[in-house]
Amino acid sequence: MLNVSIVLYHTDIREVTALVDILRGSNFVNTIFLIDNSETKNPDFELLPATYLFNGKNLGYGAAHNIAIQQTLTQHIPYHLVVNSDIYFQSESIGQLLDFMENHQDIGSLMPKIFYPDEKIQYLCKLIPTPLDLFGRRFLPRKWMQKRIERFELQQFGYDKIMNVPYLSGCFMLLRSEALKKVGLFDERFFMYPEDIDLTRRIREHYRTIFYPHVSVIHNHAQGSYKSKKLLWIHIINLIRYFNKWGWFCDKKRQLINKETLNQFKNNKL
User: Fold this and answer.
1) Taking the CB of residue 241, how many other CB atoms lie within 10 A of it?
2) Could you report the per-residue pLDDT of 100-154, keeping only the tens digit for each?
3) Which CATH number fits the domain that encloses residue 32?
């Protein structure tokens, strides 16, 4: 059994309806929380078979999800799914993912294989980033960063086997409630973007954080910070906050975690 949270911000009702229908097709879904960060309430969302929570202001991605996650922990629901509204998958995928989590109690977070609508893979399994990994890929020519990006995104490992990965995308995060009780929820100092890096990293200190390629979903990824100067500025500010928290260049844990991640492939420790 799990609860689900979807954060809205001027989100298309048709997109949300499609996702809610998919989720309601699974017998494992308990409550679906729609947390609306928009300034204006949309009464159409209240007609969906979900719990609609209107904030009246933009609290940020992680803070909004935390409202629903707190409910999950209070209700003693064993799992919580954080998912973007632009995700599509088969309803039975929920049961498959939960079954794998139930059979592997050492997993704190799990992400399936994620594709673009054109069926190209999204490389969302990543190492713990350095400042160059994040700022370089955004501002330097792609040809300068290509090999580094491929290493950072673990592209050389094919995305065809189960991997223990220290940075999983927040677009689809299946989280174990016990893990969240131990490490805490999303860090609300991050308004958008690095909250998934931070949470996966904290969970990894006590559990495995797994990429599971035997289930796949479609993500219509917008990459908003590449199209909006406002979102780009938000991205930069929150990356600065992330590195202020964990360390810019002197982050010994980052070096150790990344080394362990790469060594699992050499030693076949999957």
Assistant:
1) 17
2) 999 999 999 999 999 999 999 999 999 999 888 888 777 777 778 889 899 999 9
3) 3.90.550.60
CB contact at 8 A, 188 and 64: no
Q: 261-267 long-range contacts, Cβ below 8 Å, gap at least 24?
A: 261/127, 261/154, 261/164, 261/165, 261/166, 262/127, 264/163, 264/164, 265/157
Residue 159: φ, ψ to 5°: 55, 30
Q: Is 153 helix (H, G, I), strand (E, B) or coil?
A: coil
Torsion 23-176-181-131 (CA) sign: negative
Distance CA 113, CA 213 (A): 5
Token pair 């673990």: residue: 154
Closest CA to 8 of 35, 27, 30: 35
Q: How many domains does the chain have?
A: 1
Q: What is the 3-state secondary structure (H, E, C) of 2-47?
A: EEEEEEECCCCHHHHHHHHHHHHCCCCEEEEEEEECCCCCCHHHHH
